[in-house]
Automatic annotation (TrEMBL):
Pfam families associated with the record: GFO_IDH_MocA, GFO_IDH_MocA_C3
Sequence ranges assigned to domain Gfo/Idh/MocA-like oxidoreductase N-terminal in this UniProt record: 2-124
SUPFAM superfamilies: Glyceraldehyde-3-phosphate dehydrogenase-like, C-terminal domain, NAD(P)-binding Rossmann-fold domains
Species for this entry: Aetokthonos hydrillicola Thurmond2011
Annotated PANTHER family: BILIVERDIN REDUCTASE A (PTHR43377), GFO_IDH_MOCA-LIKE OXIDOREDUCTASE N-TERMINAL DOMAIN-CONTAINING PROTEIN (PTHR43377:SF6)
Domain of life: Bacteria
Protein name: Gfo/Idh/MocA family oxidoreductase
One annotated GO molecular function: nucleotide binding
Domain GFO/IDH/MocA-like oxidoreductase: 138-246
Alphabetical list of InterPro entries matching this protein: Gfo/Idh/MocA-like_OxRdtase_N, Gfo/Idh/MocA_Oxidoreductases, GFO_IDH_MocA-like_dom, NAD(P)-bd_dom_sf
Amino acid sequence: MIKIAVIGVGRWGVHLLRNFLEHPQAKVVAVVDSNPERLAAVKQQYNLEHSVLLATEWQAIQQVVGLEAVAIATPASTHYSLITDAISWGYHVLAEKPLTLNPIESWKVCQLAQQRQRQLMVDHTYLFHPAVERGEVVVQAGTLGDLRYGYATRTHLGPVRQDVDVLWDLAIHDIAIFNFWLNQIPISVQAMGKVWLQPKKQPAPLADLVWVILNYPNGFQAYIHLCWLNPDKQRRLGVVGSNGSLIFDEMSLSSPLTLLHGEFEQRDHQFIPINQRQQVLEIAAAEPLQRVCDRFIHCVLTNTPPVVSSGWVGTKLVEILTALEESQNQGGKLVFLKKN
């Protein structure tokens, strides 16, 4: 049994708490949150044992004998200090995305984890979604033919963040999926944003709408539309190739992953669509976050790194977001990523 503490039990943290409480090889021994009312609520909701430490101060977890791991679901601005402390105290860490808000800080915590031989995993939940895993197999098998471009839309009416803009809040999901499906990292990026709700936010306004372009080494381009004040809720991503398109539509319960076959045949000066058909791909029934928690427990038990969602994967995504932020601040300027 791995003794684990859950840090932050807000909107996402409660789901981490639930999954670790249900995991046969995990034992939740501490819950930390700055809001005592929230602690009282989760104690009642999940009928926590009296032995579970409930604390408003992060440092209190050092009192727990045998604590081995922590799951951090606090605002991204707190991640660097919390992760640094946790690894320094000897704990394995599962951190909510993004790993940090600064690529240098992300690199530092990865280095620290390596030095201390602790596992650092980032909760990029979509990388554990059965549809995303199946999609990667389809793309890498060459089923779509020559890959041409990708597109994604992630919109809803809230939640509106106070610590980061819509770029930092939402873009990381689709960037992670595109990188995973393509097995590539963008070489350059562009972003343009629009502010309506918080124009006077300090130190800088928080964009409510952002358009993103990712340019990959093979010439593939991905276009992403992000907005948290659009009632038209969409969670849709597609990759287009010469032989068809692969669509991941999270809002479709019956067919979240669809392969649309179709191509052109040229006759004289005309292009005639041929081989058109729709194929709904079967995927396993599983909760992605449960799979994240299970992988983290496995990594702790075996002290082996999580390949798909390691701290280094999280660091690269932070680098991409930082470059996008730079582009956004310069009105959509093309920004090249540094080669590592």
